[in-house]
């Protein structure tokens, strides 16, 4: 035990299904281990505004199944400055907080690394983002739920696409990661998938679509990752329509639907394991690490390593498989 008595916990960056399950696990683990817990609303902004709430076991009742985050989240400009971080530090020390658990993505981790180095407060991070774009973990919180949300949407779109013999372009989130696009595209039986990690020229896409058209498919769905290089679903649809005027094309942008919803069982279990591990790592004296899951084992990765390694989690054989299964 490193003399930790009160843990502060917050969520930051884009919300993700599973964040509440993680908050619940971290709060109850800390309380079980004799620590007290302070919730910090609105991430780093809440530290600066001293927007805190004492938490007990009842504070996290009936939230494991809720999407979003009961501690709210925000992106915070003020925290970019040393003055803002100093104000935050004074506030958390005044509240008796002597360690932090941060649930969020790479932006959250960057802030945690700087803040902990600058002021010496122990911080453990939990990878919470639907993008699944973080090094040091096979999965981030919310990715599985978001992928299932996309699959449900694809199945619905395929009903109407088949009824009208239409070609749909469905744009999904993921920022610069194609994890959601690739896995939801495969599970949804998409005819083509455009990814940030692997450029697909419009002509090559049209070759794939020609095969679909020539094999009398009743519906055709192309999944477009928002970060792919052609410029997104509307642009790709226009380019394809210009070459294949016979196609009746439509575009659906799934947007923030992918950020909500009740977390899947996978995300609930992952969240519970990571929240539990974060508290235990703090008590073991760890700081400036990210807890993650690798090969179903809970691991720790230094934040500097997690932040300096770009990770591509797409298996090459899956890209070739997409083409084969679309015949
Ligand atoms: O990082 C999660 C994410 O949902 C990305 O996939 C998406 O590009 C971004 O957040 C959207 O950010 P905002 O909610 O601020 O519009």
Number of DSSP helices? Answer: 11
Please give the radius of gyration in angstroms. Answer: 22 Å
- How are the strands of the largest sheet arranged? 3-2-1-4-5-10-11
| Chain-averaged pLDDT | 95
Structural class: alpha/beta
Bound molecules: 6-O-phosphono-beta-D-fructofuranose
Distance between the termini: 59 Å
Number of strands: 11
Explain what the structure shows:
With 327 residues, the chain is α/β, with parallel strands linked by helices. It has 2 domains: 183 residues, Rossmann fold, CATH 3.40.50.450; 116 residues, Phosphofructokinase domain (Rossmann fold). The N and C termini lie far apart (59 Å). The structure holds 6-O-phosphono-beta-D-fructofuranose. The site of 6-O-phosphono-beta-D-fructofuranose has 10 residues, from loops.
Topology:
Layout lengths: L5 E6 L7 H14 L3 E5 L2 H7 L2 E4 L26 H13 L4 E6 L1 H14 L3 E5 L15 H22 L2 E6 L6 H9 L4 E3 L7 H13 L5 E6 L7 H11 L5 E5 L11 H19 L5 E6 L2 E6 H6 L7 H10 L2
Parallel strand pairs: 1-2, 1-4, 4-5, 5-10, 6-8, 6-9, 7-8
Antiparallel strand pairs: 2-3, 10-11
Helix pairs in contact: 1-9, 2-3, 5-6, 7-8
The protein binds 6-O-phosphono-beta-D-fructofuranose (F6P).
Task: Briefly summarize what is shown.
By secondary structure, the chain is α/β, with parallel strands linked by helices.
Keywords:
seven-stranded mixed β-sheet, single chain, 327 residues, alpha/beta, four-stranded parallel β-sheet, binds 6-O-phosphono-beta-D-fructofuranose, Rossmann fold, 11 strands, 2 domains
């Amino acid at each position: 035990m490193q003399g930790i008595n009160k843990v502060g916990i917050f969520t930051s960056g884009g919300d993700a299904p599973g964040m509440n399950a993680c908050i619940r696990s971290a709060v109850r683990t800390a309380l079980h281990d004799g620590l007290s817990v302070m919730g910090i609303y609105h991430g780093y902004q809440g530290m600066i505004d001293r927007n805190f709430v004492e938490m007990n076991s009842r504070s996290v009742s009936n939230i494991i199944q809720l999407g979003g985050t009961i501690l709210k989240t925000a992106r915070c400009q003020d925290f970019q400055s040393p003055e803002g971080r100093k104000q935050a530090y004074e506030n958390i020390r005044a509240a008796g907080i002597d360690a932090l658990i941060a649930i969020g993505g790479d932006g959250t981790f960057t802030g945690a690394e700087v803040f902990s180095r600058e002021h010496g407060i122990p911080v453990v991070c939990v990878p919470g983002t639907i993008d699944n774009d973080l090094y040091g973990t096979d999965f981030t919180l919310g990715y599985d739920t978001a992928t299932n949300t996309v699959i449900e949407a694809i199945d619905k779109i395929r009903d109407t696409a088949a009824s009208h013999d239409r070609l749909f372009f469905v744009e999904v989130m993921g920022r610069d990661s194609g994890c959601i696009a690739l896995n939801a595209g495969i599970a949804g039986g998409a005819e083509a998938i455009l990814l940030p990690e692997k450029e697909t020229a419009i002509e090559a896409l049209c070759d794939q679509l020609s095969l679909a058209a020539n094999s009398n498919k009743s519906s055709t769905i192309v999944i477009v990752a928002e970060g792919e290089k052609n410029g997104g679903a509307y642009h790709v649809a226009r380019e394809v329509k210009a070459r294949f005027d016979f196609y009746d094309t439509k575009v659906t942008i799934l947007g923030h639907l992918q950020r909500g919803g009740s977390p899947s069982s996978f995300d609930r279990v992952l969240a519970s394991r990571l929240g539990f591990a974060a508290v235990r790592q703090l008590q073991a004296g760890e700081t400036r690490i990210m807890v993650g899951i690798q090969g179903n084992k809970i691991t720790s990765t230094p934040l500097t390593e997690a932040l300096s390694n770009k990770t591509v989690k797409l298996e090459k054989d899956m890209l070739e498989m997409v083409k084969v299964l679309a015949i």
